[in-house]
Amino acid sequence: xxxxxxxxxxxxxxxxxxxxxxxxxxxxxxxxxxxxxxxxxxxxxxxxxxxxxxxxxxxxxxxxxxxxxxxxxxxxxxxxxxxxxxxxxxxxxxxxxxxxxxxxxxxxxxxxxxxxxxxxxxxxxxxxxxxxxxxxxxxxxxxxxxxxxxxxxxxxxxxxxxxxxxxxxxxxxxxxxxxxxxxxxxxxxxxxxxxxxxxxxxxxxxxxxxxxxxxxxxxxxxxxxxxxxxxxxxxxxxxxxxxxxxxxxxxxxxxxxxxxxxxxxxxxxxxxxxxxxxxxxxxxxxxxxxxxxxxxxxxxxxxxxxxxxxxxxxxxxxxxxxxxxxxxxxxxxxxxxxxxxxxxxxxxxxxxxxxxxxxxxxxxxxxxxxxxxxxxxxxxxxxxxxxxxxxxxxxxxxxxxxxxxxxxxxxxxxxxxxxxxxxxxxxxxxxxxxxxxxxxxxxxxxxxxxxxxxxxxxxxxxxxxxxxxxxxxxxxxxxxxxxxxxxxxxxxxxxxxxxxxxxxxxxxxxxxxxxxxxxxxxxxxxxxxxxxxxxxxxxxxxxxxxxxxxxxxxxxxxxxxxxxxxxxxxxxxx
DNA sequence: GCCGTTTTCGGCCCGACTGTTTTCAGTCG
Length: 574
Hints:
Blueprint: H1 5-22, H2 26-41, H3 46-51, H4 64-76, H5 80-88, H6 92-96, H7 104-114, H8 119-127, H9 139-151, E1 158-159, H10 160-175, E2 182-185, H11 187-190, E3 195-196, E4 198-204, H12 208-216, E5 221-227, E6 231-236, E7 241-247, H13 252-260, H14 263-275, E8 279-281, E9 284-287, E10 290-293, H15 297-303, H16 319-324, E11 339-340, H17 354-363, E12 368-374, H18 386-402, E13 407-415, H19 426-430, E14 434-438, H20 447-459, E15 465-466, H21 484-494, E16 497-501, H22 511-520, E17 523-527, H23 539-548, H24 562-569
Parallel strand pairs: 4-7, 11-12, 12-13, 13-14, 14-15, 15-16, 16-17
Antiparallel strand pairs: 1-3, 2-4, 5-6, 6-7, 8-9, 9-10
The protein binds one DNA strand of 29 nucleotides through α2, α4, α7, α9 and β6.
């Protein structure tokens, strides 16, 4: 079984943590962290690249040494260096780095002076009052450690959609403060990352203290972690941490840039600034004492010789180079979307009728909506057999005569059976406007079998779209073992479309896959898989993910007019 | 450990807040 990028990255992260606890050169530690990040973000399988003898040193942050280590991991599944480190640094110490307030320095002291190697030992030492006697520690630190341990705090990530209500409520709350001129939730939320660890709020005001006081009075606040004159940090009742920064108007753009990140993106910008003998921080871009930019982000990018870079691109995946060459993509927007190609009704497991779904889509300004109820294999959803599907097709024909602003497309979401055959006969599939196929059971097949299964389904000439290709559920279910690159090759050959499922629990394909699809020339459908009228609005999450994957209007099929779309679905004029 | 129109050595982002401190280290983002 080839090793996954995520597993390689995990090993590199462990090396970084252990080296840090040992007190290694922090830049060396950072090099491992950056390499790990590069690996986990890389759309292609490194194991495969190693197998093909491709060079790894072209990846950012990976030199000869790390390339060799990655090759060792791919070949042996492990790294001798890690094994050696584990003998010197008890692996339990690693988990202590996750305790708020404990960094590598303090963890090392705890180990060296008190022999602590685990959270349980730390708790005991703190209870016995031994921690407070260490230099640099005190009563308060000891108490904070105990509190953090009793909360059992493991940094938890929130799905974008679960953080959104809090983000909107906070924005509104802060706008209610007279001293606030502008407020934006920045960070990974603004980059539309599929999960966020916390919210970073940037407010524009000349009275920081007043804004901070207003901020900590927000109704959802569980506890205040810190509050100063320009910055504060709180934890909300649902456990989400929120950091606020207040800056004056002339710094707002620079602060947004700083707090939107991603960190490597901003570090690279600082680097560019240094090369131009400028200094970039959250207050502006400076030449000596003089502020040359900072009011808006565009101003800062401009002063660095770059085009404005959309937040979703700021992941340090080539966007800075593209901006300097004026080669940035013109990203997909919500307004580009002309219809939804995946939806369900009460005929199976949806909550609204055909007509209700149609009207809701019409209200969104769509030209078309594909009705794609499940096939019979999905028993829990009361999936349709051929007879019931034909009944629905007739209903759609009748309804289309009444509807004026929108057209319903006749479709189905057909289960891919274990052998790769489809759950409805070709005869009826041929009569549909759009055929989606997807895997809903046997998600744990080995990669070879899963890939063969999906490839066989795509070989059916009636199939248009492969829905939620990897089957992952964010935070709940890992993606299935699937050779996504092979599937994409097949999709290109056969004119099939891959779905970017916009359900915020799925967002499948992920951003890296979208980027790969674009590079390989695979067409994408951004679809909500709505099981009710209220879910059609989930399209915004799909658009965000598409933008993170550098997708443009041309790459996405449901930006086409109905006529163009119909031609595409007949696989003509590809 | 990486990286390079300030190159193969010597840099590597930087400011706020907290707690333990009499001037600052550690942590965090």
